[in-house]
Design goal:
Length: 76
Amino acid sequence: MDLLLWITIGFILIGFVALISMKKGMESKVAFIKANIESEESSTKAKSITRWMWSTTAWGIVSMFLVVWCFHHYFG
């Protein structure tokens, strides 16, 4: 197999593992924010959730790009 395919598979799998492992932490942060809306700590936790959402979106976009690139490379 080609290196491009291994990079794509590894990137997607590592991303899924990271998302699954961080999911519970993000859920607890959201629950904390809902319970303590006016707290200073809520603002910090909200910023970390926003960064997590942006990074998840970026990971998804890069994953889609890599999959399309693999299909173009192997079947194009």
